[in-house]
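Onboarding guide, step 5: your first structure request.
Type a short instruction followed by the sequence, for example:

Predict the 3D structure of this protein.
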Amino acid sequence: MNALRMALDSITEKKGRSFLTMLGIIIGVTAVLVLVAMVTGYNSDMTAYYEKLGVNKVTVKLTWYDSSRSTDLTTPLYEYGNGELAQMVDGVTPDLSTQLPIQYGGKTVDDTVVYLGSDQYSICSNYILESGRDILPQDIENRSMVCVLGSYAADDLFPYTDPIGKTVTIGGFPFLVVGTYYQKDGGVEDSMDHMAVVPYTVNRTLLRSDRVDSVTVKVNSSKNVEGVISRLELWLADRIDSSVGEYSLADGNSAMAESNDEMTSLSVVLGGIASIALLVGGIGIMNIMLVTVTERTREIGIKKSIGAPRREIVGQFLMEAGILSSLGGLVGIVLGFGLSLVLGKAMYGLIVLPGVGISLGAFAFSLAIGVIFGIYPAVKASSLQPVDALRAD
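The system replies with structure tokens like these:
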């Protein structure tokens, strides 16, 4: 307790110098927490993005070397996914899209992403029907000129009226609006809601082509993704002659997993870089403690002359270094939480705070830095000879 009291007295006696000594620790801890929190926020933002797109998806891509001998596998693949794979698959849809203006009356929504999908497009792409109906199997079979609008397109074209039953013009062709989707991405321009879905069988009308080279298969659970990929591999190998074309299968979850791994690695790297500031802060503590030893040489000599053991002097200076670094760590944690909250809201619109683990780790590291860099000054103080110390000015 005596060492603690004397350390606190020494720190409070020179408040300005003590604050400057802690500054390196404060900056280091703040930087570590903010950088790690921002990476965590970015990762959360990317995860939310992938979840909006829809998880547990397998993308089948087809490449034909000889188009004259190519085979349209869209309907067979749809039937296979909803037949033999029905216990593992929620839906199958072609993955076709283009950007076209949508017009109604005097209003136009430019560069709308028009998806050409099956009746299971909304299941595969994580859209939920808000009003009206979705694309039906009959629409696919009959090549019906119908569409379902995303929330942005619907709100912009029909701000005060019900769009169901109205006829819009997509790329110069009339389409009957049969439904609308709930907002899923902010309902603003350039969002995932700036879209419309039409039956993929009208692709010759809109795209001037009836080729389907990409199909999305929605798997009902992540544990079934590998099984579905294996089954699709065998199914496609039986139907595609390697001299005519080839296929590839992509696990949609792999992109999110890779993003998570990259963000984890980046978090470690940035945290390590920011930790350099903590080392600089530790050097600052060592320098100030050396100055303190010089200033208190006579005090040390008096203590040693009246029998103070060496461990007491070492303990006193280590206590002072530990208090300086721990106070700096606490201030850094408070600033780190505050800056993370502000930056998270500004950059991602999320409440981003450093985790408890990283906060405790940063505090422990700052305390360890202070103690480690305080050892040399403490040992130097305890090594002074009483006669030499008392002779100092």
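Each response can be followed by summary notes, for example: The longest helix spans residues 252-295.
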